[in-house]
Structure formats: structure tokens, C-alpha cells
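Box 3.1 A note on notation
Throughout this textbook, protein chains are presented in two layers. The first layer is the amino acid sequence; the second is a C-alpha cell string describing backbone geometry. Keep the layers aligned when reading.
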Amino acid sequence: MTDETLFQKLGFSPEDKVVIFHIDDVGFSHAANVAAFECLDFGIASCGSVIVPAPWFLEVAAIAKTNPQYDIGVHLTLTSEYSTYRWRALSSVETKTGLLAEDRCLWKTAEEAISNVTAEAAEIEMRTQIDYALQSGIDVTHIDTHMGTVMDPKFIQSYLTLSDEYKIPAFLPKLSKEELFLMGLGEYVDIYQDLLESLESNGFPLVDHMIIETGGVYPNKSQYYHELLKELQPGLTHLLFHPAKMSHELKSIAPDSAEWRNQDYEAFTDVYLRDRVKELDITVIGYREIRDIIRKQK
């Protein structure tokens, strides 16, 4: 147990505004990989997480293995949401696990995965994804969740167990009752509130704020992000986005999100937005700094 908060351990004062600019869905396509590493090199984005079962995972692993400075985590995945572009579980092809839909790929929605995947199979699959990332040369800095699935009460204990086992931070924000209701978790409010209070009292690295609703097409996506950042509260904020570079591949895989993913790529390689981050006196960090703290105190 500790009385010192994560924010204090990171060396920040209560009034500081600190942001993890996080790239989601790395590895789901070549277009996403190109965009992700360009964004990381540009300097606003600080880290990202890779979908290990996805078709373009090995490209990410090859880049990360030869460029260990990149801050890459595992985007723990129990779903495969696209109609004709699908990926399978890494740990099993057995139907009794509940991991697989009728086409032998992961379920398309979080609701289907939660209803069908057994808790045991989910933990095995999550561990397999982390192990495969490590074996492929990625210095895994954190874990988070694709489509929010593994943060369901059915799976969250396994999520936390893996964080402790591998000594890596798991993305988990402090959530008010109002936020839990807005996320459709109203029936689990008391469970989550008790869990978060217990974790925080025992020094688990919780994120103070999250900005996750960043999809959508805007007339000026850089300006959109600037407006979000102007409203930042002091503390540690996890802001996620989904960059991918416009291409025939991207439009074929994700016709409904291709435009806004490309807008995310353009915004996070825009000098205007980089200058606004500096102007707003925002400190940018990744998850490696948090992992280092966890490993020092274990």
C-alpha cells in the first residue's frame, strides 16, 4: 500500500496537465502501421497498442524489434469487427472455448464475445497474445482493450491478473458513476466503484481522465483536437485515436471509418496541432514511464 499517487511518482505536481497520446488498432492494416509510426516519429503521439491476431501484426513486430524506442503495448483482442476482413484466436480453434463465431473467427461485437467466450478461454487468449508479442521482439509496455471487451466484469479480473503477472500497466481509468452509466455499465456501478477504490488504495496505476470518443469526420480534425485539449483538467489523461493512411486497402477494409482514420493521421502529423500542445503547456508521456515505476516497486 502507498500514500503516494501515480502522478506524484511520475514527478508531477497536482496542477500539471499530462497526456498519453495513444494510438489504437496498430497492426490491423498496413495503412494503420504506416500512419502509426509516422505519428510516433512526428512527436505528438507517444505510444500505441497492437492487435496481435491481426494480419499486419508481424510488420509491427519487425519494426519494433529493430526500433526499441517505440512504446508499444498489446491491444488485447477478443473481437474481429469487419465483415470480410477477419482474424482468429491465437490460442485455440476449439468451439467449446466460445472464442469463435460460426466463421471460425473472433466475434464481431463485444456483446457477442462477452456472451460466448468463457472467462478461462479469455485469459488464455490474452496471455497468448502478450506472449506472442514478447516472443516476436516487442518490448511490451502496457496492455489495453480492443472495443472495451476485456474490461467487462466477466474478464476484468484476468486483465488485472495479467498486468500483475507481467509487471506492465493496464489501461484503467478512474470512472465516476455518471461515466459508468454513459458507458452502458450502469448495472455494474457498485462493482466498478469498489474495484477502482481498492486498486487505487493499493497503488495500481489508474489514469485520471480519458478521452476516447475521437472517431468521426470533422471539417478540421486538428482544430477539433485543439478544442479538446483546451478543456483538459490537471492530472493524467489517456487520449486515444486511430490513425490510418488513406489507401485502397483502408477503404476496402473499413469503408465506414476510413475517412476519419485518415483525418486522425493528418491531425497527428500536423505542425498546427504539435504547436498547440506546446502552447497549452501539456507534458506528453507514454506507458514505458509508468511500467518503469511499476517494476521498481515490485
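The CA atoms of residues 222 and 267 lie 5 Å apart. The domain at 6-297 is CATH 3.20.20.370 (TIM Barrel).
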